[in-house]
Amino acid sequence: KTGCRNPLNFCQNEYKDSFAMFLVALSFAYFAKALSGSYMKSTITQLERRFDIPSYLIGVIDGSFEIGNLLVIAFVSYFGAKLHRPKIIAVGCVLMSIGTFIIALPHFIIGRKGETVLQNGESNLSMWIYVLLGNVLRGIGETPVQPLGISYIDDFASEENAALYVGCVQTISVVGPVFGYLLGSLCAKIYVDIGFVKMETISITPADARWVGAWWLGYLIAGVITLLSAIPFWFLPRSLPISGPQNVCYVSSTDFIPTLRTLLGHPVYLIYLCVTIIQLNSLIGMVTYKPKYIEQHFRQSASKANFLMGVINIPAVALGMFSGGLLMKRLKLNIMGAARFAFGTSLIGYILSLFFFAMSCENAKVAGVTLNYNSLEGISYDKHSVFTTCNSGCYCSATEWDPVCGENGITYVSPCLAGCTSSVGSGKNTVFSNCSCIGVDGNFTASTGQCPNKDDCDRMFPYFLALSVKRVLSFTTDICQLYFDICCLYGPENACVGSSASLCFESTAGIPAPIYFGAIIDTTCLKWGQKRCGGMGACRIYNTTAYRYSHMHLFMPHMSLYLTLKKKNSIEKNRQMHIVKY
């Protein structure tokens, strides 16, 4: 009726409108998935405290996202291009949204902090399972968005514009984590039971190790945004008019295994995969636990740690990726030059990382934990007893964590263990008196919360932030690595199989890293919290020296790229055979 005579019965203006709509929708989907993923990272300490679980269990929850990826990656790789790609992406966005809502569900089941709607302690202990299952569903939903979205652009965009469109979409995905961490910063300031309790009755502050922010609120916001991102894809066509030759990424089931075997026998590609796995372990560990490191080592609030991640670290990543591409273009680097450039920047980053070891912050002075009651002068990590003569008649609990700050500048695990016998005021303004363990005469007072005592931390923290920007150097190598990937994966069969294999290896790297990094962090705990129904809860205070040394290898770049220099002849040959359109 419209007089359109092209093969797919689309007029040119209809094609442009549909393709532009797809680009906008895909960019928004990238933004939504990046926002929810980064918000998940920003809430790890809130989840630890809310569900009283150690860091390694948080690692299991975080790694469950990649488990969701692996569950459907084979289906997406093999059948995705044959089906209605926009609608599959829409289904993926809906699943991500449902998973995000499921993560927030425990808050409404448990009820207020310290209470439970179910009135059942055992059910309360297992509420973190909902978070894990929701994250698995998020991983399943996220899987088709990138490969099917990029392949749709690659199939129906002109050759000269395809790379530009992909670059624009990827740029939007970098903006998502900034807003995700800023949302995490905002929600961490708000008390978990906001609207149900009077804030003047709350005796803790956001800097307290027991503070839990409104972690559930951010998941509801992220879930709504992700759900909205699914709407445009339902109205997009399965295919568009093809301008020029079409590069279809399709490999039959009989050719997949032989092609994969040949590809893994390629020495450069195998080295590239190993480097990618090692670097992803480092990156995922850093992104997952760096806010926690800032909180524990430099005694910053969760809100401030997330804010700094959003405004400093994530933009540094984006700047590094952009700088790498710009330098490669300006310097006109070939594959050999790219390898040398990657090695040089990795070496500089490695040397700069060594300075992190010198950025120490003295541990908090806590009687019976880092200090001996009989000698309150020097920090000691020997096993101390919280019981002594001054509190022996108080019948205190050794597992309780309700810290108070004495007039002598020492933190005590609880008012009882400080020997206090009376108090005045309420909430944050409570003052304990007649504390027999504070001072020589035992007549000193104590206030709620830990003593600040972080002058050395405040002096060192700006240098830590400045050195953290070295991530720019680390991410300048990303474009170089992509260049290596392109040179190894020449031909449509290798590109399809290699992309699937790379995604599987990357997902596999993302599963163990948060778990073993969390387990290492747990070994540095000095004082564990106690669950109401018994058992070990979340850690309250860490050995900051041991934490720093165990955590620093997260920031170490890896220089295995140097090995690719030995493969000059094969790389250059492969480069000449590479598909121009890619």
TrEMBL record:
<keyword id="KW-0813">Transport</keyword>
<feature type="transmembrane region" description="Helical">
    <location>
        <begin position="269"/>
        <end position="287"/>
    </location>
</feature>
<dbReference type="InterPro" id="IPR002350">
    <property type="entry name" value="Kazal_dom"/>
</dbReference>
<dbReference type="InterPro" id="IPR036058">
    <property type="entry name" value="Kazal_dom_sf"/>
</dbReference>
<feature type="domain" description="Major facilitator superfamily (MFS) profile">
    <location>
        <begin position="22"/>
        <end position="582"/>
    </location>
</feature>
<dbReference type="InterPro" id="IPR020846">
    <property type="entry name" value="MFS_dom"/>
</dbReference>
<feature type="transmembrane region" description="Helical">
    <location>
        <begin position="216"/>
        <end position="236"/>
    </location>
</feature>
<keyword id="KW-0325">Glycoprotein</keyword>
<dbReference type="InterPro" id="IPR004156">
    <property type="entry name" value="OATP"/>
</dbReference>
<keyword id="KW-1015">Disulfide bond</keyword>
<dbReference type="GO" id="GO:0016323">
    <property type="term" value="C:basolateral plasma membrane"/>
</dbReference>
<feature type="transmembrane region" description="Helical">
    <location>
        <begin position="88"/>
        <end position="110"/>
    </location>
</feature>
<dbReference type="GO" id="GO:0015347">
    <property type="term" value="F:sodium-independent organic anion transmembrane transporter activity"/>
</dbReference>
<keyword id="KW-0812">Transmembrane</keyword>
<comment type="similarity">
    <text>Belongs to the organo anion transporter (TC 2.A.60) family.</text>
</comment>
<feature type="transmembrane region" description="Helical">
    <location>
        <begin position="162"/>
        <end position="183"/>
    </location>
</feature>
<dbReference type="GO" id="GO:0006811">
    <property type="term" value="P:monoatomic ion transport"/>
</dbReference>
<keyword id="KW-1003">Cell membrane</keyword>
<protein>
    <recommendedName>
        <fullName>Solute carrier organic anion transporter family member</fullName>
    </recommendedName>
</protein>
<dbReference type="GO" id="GO:0006869">
    <property type="term" value="P:lipid transport"/>
</dbReference>
<keyword id="KW-1133">Transmembrane helix</keyword>
<keyword id="KW-0472">Membrane</keyword>
<feature type="domain" description="Kazal-like">
    <location>
        <begin position="384"/>
        <end position="439"/>
    </location>
</feature>
<feature type="transmembrane region" description="Helical">
    <location>
        <begin position="56"/>
        <end position="81"/>
    </location>
</feature>
<feature type="transmembrane region" description="Helical">
    <location>
        <begin position="19"/>
        <end position="36"/>
    </location>
</feature>
<dbReference type="Pfam" id="PF03137">
    <property type="entry name" value="OATP"/>
</dbReference>
<dbReference type="InterPro" id="IPR036259">
    <property type="entry name" value="MFS_trans_sf"/>
</dbReference>
<keyword id="KW-0406">Ion transport</keyword>
<keyword id="KW-0445">Lipid transport</keyword>
<dbReference type="Pfam" id="PF07648">
    <property type="entry name" value="Kazal_2"/>
</dbReference>
<feature type="transmembrane region" description="Helical">
    <location>
        <begin position="339"/>
        <end position="359"/>
    </location>
</feature>
<dbReference type="GO" id="GO:0043252">
    <property type="term" value="P:sodium-independent organic anion transport"/>
</dbReference>
<feature type="transmembrane region" description="Helical">
    <location>
        <begin position="307"/>
        <end position="327"/>
    </location>
</feature>
